[in-house]
Design brief:
Layout lengths: L1 H45 L22 E4 L7 E6 L6 E11 L15 E5 L15 E7 L5 E8 L11 E11 L2 E12 L3 H21 L8 H6 L1 H29 L7 H36 L6
Helix pairs in contact: 1-2, 1-4, 2-4, 2-5, 4-5
Length: 310
């Protein structure tokens, strides 16, 4: 008797694995593609911005008279950081402030008056990663605070829609702040760019599906007979689909974490791709492996539930 029941379970699993699993895997892929398409469309739309940066001032700030004010960055040199992510046509800004001290020529310790012109500019006009230039300009400006005791520095960068003009990476440079009868001060600037999210999502999805299929191929079948499956066909179909869908979701989430956590993802294409592949595949197979035992137990309990057809 036990051998007969074992044979019926083996027959049910074989019948389930050929037509039903093929259908379920296909349905899972279709659902995942639709969901991924919606996510990709939403994320891609959010990566397309509108607007423009302020214009770079070309005013002459030179003066032959002695300086009365001296900007100070403070104890630690302040760094102005701009994270462009993968956005295009979207102005991104970075800011910092420097205090303004009097020089020995300013005996009355007068604050910086409104009539004094101040400005800022990036040395060399652009930033570099050590081997190549950024590919587009970075605008800078300085404004006096209401009390005249500090200067606010603002930088603005707008990545062109042609992504080929600027590659992912970490770019650095220097912004110089100066003014009429104001000593100059230099501040470091860092700008980061990452690869396009659409390509990353699509690649992560493919790897997640492969990982899910690999995990499903090595997954132990449920201990149910063909008669038990037919009695609750819809319930068994849903439970059989859950591990595969869970693996794809886990893989995509792992890929997104890797992508969002790295501000320069894509700068090292080989290493970043390998990292994304390993994390996505491991998460997909792991997610399916974790979910499969629970669904097998649920399918076994479902098999013991009386059918409404009876």
């Amino acid at each position: 008797m036990p051998n007969a029941r074992r044979a019926r379970r083996r027959t049910a699993n074989q019948k389930w694995s050929v037509p039903a699993r093929t259908f379920l895997v296909g349905a899972a892929v279709v659902v995942a593609v639709i969901g991924l398409g919606w996510v990709t469309f939403t994320l891609t739309r959010s990566a397309q911005g509108t607007g423009s940066c302020f214009k770079q001032s070309r005013a002459n700030l030179a003066s032959s008279q002695p300086a009365l004010w001296s900007p100070r960055a403070g104890g630690a040199t302040k760094k102005i950081a701009i994270a462009l992510d993968d956005f295009v046509n979207d102005p991104r800004r970075g800011a910092a402030s420097v205090s303004v001290r009097r020089t020995s020529a300013n005996r009355r310790n007068r604050p910086l008056p409104r009539t004094v012109r101040v400005g800022a500019f990036v040395l060399g006009g652009t930033l570099t990663d050590g081997t190549r230039d950024l590919g587009f300009p970075v605008a800078a400006r300085a404004t006096r605070t209401p009390d005249g005791r500090a200067l606010d520095i603002e930088l603005c960068a707008l990545r062109p829609e042609r992504r080929s003009l600027s590659r992912p990476g970490r770019y650095s440079g220097t912004v110089r702040v100066a003014g009429q009868r104001v000593e100059s001060v230099d501040l470091p600037v860092e700008l980061t760019i990452k690869g396009a999210r659409t390509e990353t999502l699509l690649f992560g999805f493919v790897i997640a599906v492969i990982g899910g299929i690999a995990g499903a191929a090595n997954s132990k079948p449920a201990d149910v007979t063909n008669e038990e499956v037919e009695a609750h066909s819809k319930g068994h179909a849903a439970l059989a689909l859950l591990p595969f869908a869970g693996g794809i979701i886990a893989g995509l989430l792992a890929g997104l974490v890797i992508y969002w956590d790295d501000p320069t993802f894509g700068a090292e294409r080989g290493a970043d791709t390998a990292k994304l592949l390993a994390a996505t595949f491991a998460a997909a197979t792991g997610g399916l492996t974790i979910a499969a035992p629970a669904t097998r137990v649920l399918r076994k309990k479902l098999a013991k539930t009386p059918s409404r057809r009876a």
